[in-house]
Amino acid sequence: MEPDMWIGAERGDGTAVTMVGGYKITDVTFSENEACPTFMIANINPRFDIGYNLSSMEGIVQAAHEVNADVLVFPELCVSGYVWDAGHKAEVQEQLKASDNCQPEVKKVLDGIKAGLVGGGRGLKMVLFGNVRVDRSHGKVHAHDSTFVMTPGADYNDTFYDKTFLTPLEKLFFRRGSDKRLVLDTRWGRAGIMMCYDLCFVEMGKRYAFTDEVDVIITTAAWRTEAVREYPLLNLKIDNYYQYIWRLMHSALAAHNQVWSIGANCAGVFEKTGGRFCGESGVWSPSGIPLVHASHEEEELIVIRNLEIRGHMRHQAKEHFDYRLDFDEVYREIRDMKPRRVSLDGP
Q: What is the per-residue pLDDT across 25-35, written as a single tens digit (0 to 9) for each?
């Protein structure tokens, strides 16, 4: 028996599924307020092939233009493809070096994407993408697993977040980012950026929500599917534990911190290992409820229109209570004090 984390919320019939540029697009509308942004989230399978990945990005950007998305979010390492094992360390390092934003082939495509962005009105204004960041400062060369933010008026190489929490595999290839968070102030609201494994560490989301007061946390990821957790006497076994955690972490991040959570993940089989990414890129509301999500195995583009990311919970009906206002009234930071310990096992 496996638990089903997609709760049984009633869904309307406002979902449109179309094909644009060879990509399946699931298109939903959150509100009628056209002053709010429209997000496209890429649920894709990057390969260990820079040329293929760049071409894929160009096609998806074109699709974003055609559906009038304002913000496009790609997954982690969508330019280079994901890293794979210690036995091929030299090959992976060469791939990462070749995918640097400053490499001519890469720079040409990225600059072309930037040139098509618009500053106002309807149209694509912001693209978030994952790639290696080569830091040559301080006389040394270090590679970071980073998310870059591309807008018309700034250099995307200057607006980035370096992944803070690296998996053991990633530590073979990347240097850990500093604890410096990235906060984006936009006309629609304030966004914080996280990456993949960062989701497992609640302190970062809490800082974004309560210190930085963001409205939405956007996570780029290359999150896997398979891991087994089994409890035999309860007849409970989960084969795709990491997939379960992907869903759970987004709902918890959103509900605990009363923010929107948007996740862009890789999907399908990883060509180098045969392992699977869990996909399911999507949007979770501050209630913790998933509003829309992509396939766990197929490439798909999710579009959610007119997403009211600023102050959404304050506009909810108050049949029982308004969770966000309750947070504002009750919350205070827990001081660093030793607990009171009580032994219940006798003398």
A: 999 999 999 99
Residue 287 token pair? 């209630």
Helix axes 50-66, 104-115, angle to 10 degrees: 0
In the chain, how long is the greatest CA-to-CA distance?
Answer: 73
In angstroms, the CA 247 to CA 288 distance is: 10
Q: pTM, whole model, 2 decimals?
A: 0.90
What digits encode the pLDDT tens for the residues 40-68? 999 999 999 999 999 999 999 999 999 99
Domains and their CATH numbers in the chain: 16-330 (3.60.110.10)
For residue 56, give the DSSP letter: H
Neighbour-count burial for 246-256, b at 16+ CB within 10 Å, e otherwise: bbebbbbbbbe
Residue in 111, 128, 112, 26 with CA at minimum distance from that of residue 70: 128
Q: How confident is the model at residue 179 (pLDDT cuts 50, 70, 90)?
A: confident
CB-CB neighbours of 132 under 10 Å = 22
3-state secondary structure of 151: coil
Long-range contacts of 120-123 (CB under 8 A, 24+ apart): 122/34, 122/68, 122/70, 123/65, 123/68, 123/70
249, 293 in Cβ contact below 8 A?
Answer: no
Structural element, H or E, at residue 16 = strand 16-20
Looking at residue 29, its amino acid is: T
The β-bridge partners of 262 are 218, 283
Residues 288 and 251 sit within 8 Å (Cβ to Cβ): yes
For the stretch 101-128, what's the b/e string if a residue is b when 16 or more beta carbons lie within 10 angstroms of its beta carbon?
beeeebeebbeebbeebeeeeeebbbbb
Q: Using an 8 Å Cβ cutoff, are 199 and 165 in contact?
A: no
